Amino acid sequence: MRRIVFGLTVLTAGLCTAVSVAQTLKQRPAAGTQQQNEDMPASQKMSESVDAAPVPMPMSVGVGTPIKVAIDSEVRVRKVGQAIQCRTTEPVYAFDKLLIPAGTVVNGRVSAIDAVPKMVRTMQAANGNFSPSRKVHVQFDELVMGDGRRVPLQTVASPAPDGVLRFVSAKEKPEQKNQVQDAASKQVSATRQAIHQKWNDLQNQIHEPGKLHKVKRIVLAQLPVHPQYIDAGTSFNANLLQPLDFGTEAVKPERLTDIGSPPPNGSVVHARLVTPLSSSTEKQGDMVEALITEPLVVSHHLILPEGSVIKGSVLQAQPARRMGRNGQLRILFHEVAPPNGIEQRVETNLEGVAVAKGEHLKLDDEGGAQVTTPRTRYLTTGIQVMLAASQASPDRDAGQGGQSVGEAGGGAVSGASGFKLVGMVVGIAAHSRVVSAGFGSYGAALSIYYHFLARGRDVVYPKDMPMLIGLGTRDGKSAKAAEPSAKFVR
């Protein structure tokens, strides 16, 4: 009993002491006051000073990143291992720093030359071509920087769209705009002009052959046996197998405060397509993704660094059909997010794409793409039909002994229209109007089929295709206007 009373007494005394001590504690000063700074522990002060220090940012190009290059002079394909020199056609950034400028020299070599399948060789021989084109594989293994430094590469190269790339801009409808919309449109137009100027400057670095040289190549290609060339300006994607490390860069904390902010109207970003697209396979609603390749900086404020993701969807896809009807494709991006950041909705316009020179692609003001058919198909087909018809009718000099000049010339041209040089020689040597007419009719039939009866061409956006995307409204349109365009509906 005494132990219980003694315990209760000690417990009561302890509680009273605790209450009295608690009543004598001072209140913590408000945040940001001088008293707080004086009472702050040394470890906390050190932590805040570290937070205000520059942030080290790795400057590296990751595995799988395509370095876009183009051959700067014509190359005659001779053997495996021969040297090839290219130049970069797109700058390479890391976060907000330019690492590899456009126009940087890239050295490579021919890594393999494929054999031609027997069926292809037979079909080409039937058309008078005994030197069909072989698939040439190339590999790039060295960057030559502007200061002379040589950076080794490990890449696997894949051909970009066949031929020399060109920049296709979307056509904008003339319409009334307020001052804000007009300023945004002018900013987009200025960016387009800068892109075209950059493209022209790059083309000046590529030793494109002159007109006489092109004529010689065309004539040479008509011979039954002829060498194979890789044209100047032919593009490749040199995909990295090992990362490129350019060290680290100290970034001030205030440089990071505006990342992820809504981009102002009229902003334009450079991007590369991650999702390959084709009007023959895509369906409405399919997801599309692209990566921003150049940082978006507005008034010295970094809004979107390199590597930001921009997502969208297919609004409409119509495959190519018979009778020469071409495919159509329309996409719209509607979300953007910095690396490891939060996605935000944004209105966009597809301002331009880089495609092969012979693609005949046309963009409208709503980002819809359609392959156009050149009008020269009417002239080409008409000439071949006229040649075939001329050989079917008798020449006024015929029957006067030997082959008349008209018959010889007509036979040569008709034979060339069907079987190139072999057809030309046979048409002259055969001394037969039936043979010449047969060659001419064959050429005319091929022209009619391929230009008017065969399936048209699909819109194809290859993986890693360079794109120019406008962010924010610039023409008074809302994202709600993302309905299938009436001009695509037939």
Folded structure, characterized:
This protein has 490 residues and is α+β, with helices and mostly antiparallel strands. It has a domain at 60-373 and 458-476: Lipocalin (Beta Barrel), CATH 2.40.128.260. The protein contains 9 helices and 26 strands. It has a 16-stranded antiparallel β-sheet that branches. The protein has a two-stranded antiparallel ribbon with strand order 1-13. The longest helix has 27 residues, at 179-205. The radius of gyration is 34 Å and the shape is globular.
Structural class of the secondary structure composition?
Answer: alpha+beta
Radius of gyration: 34 Å
Strand count? 26
DSSP helical segment count: 9
Low-confidence spans = 1-38, 45-50, 398-418, 474-490
Largest sheet: 16 strands, antiparallel
| CATH homologous superfamily label of the domain at 60-373 and 458-476 | Type IV secretion system, VirB10/TraB/TrbI
**N-to-C terminal Cα separation, in Å?**
102 Å
Level-1 CATH class name of the domain at 60-373 and 458-476: Mainly Beta
Topology:
Layout: H1 2-23, H2 34-39, H3 42-51, E1 55-61, E2 66-71, E3 75-76, E4 83-88, E5 92-94, E6 97-100, E7 105-113, H4 118-126, E8 136-144, E9 150-152, E10 155-169, H5 179-205, H6 211-221, E11 229-230, E12 234-240, E13 244-251, E14 267-273, E15 277-278, E16 287-292, E17 296-298, E18 301-304, E19 309-318, E20 328-337, E21 344-345, E22 348-356, E23 361-363, E24 368-371, H7 376-392, H8 405-429, H9 433-453, E25 460-461, E26 466-471
Antiparallel strand pairs: 1-13, 2-4, 2-12, 3-11, 4-7, 5-6, 7-8, 8-9, 10-12, 10-22, 14-16, 14-26, 15-25, 16-19, 17-18, 19-20, 20-21, 20-24, 22-26, 23-24
Helix pairs in contact: 7-8, 7-9, 8-9
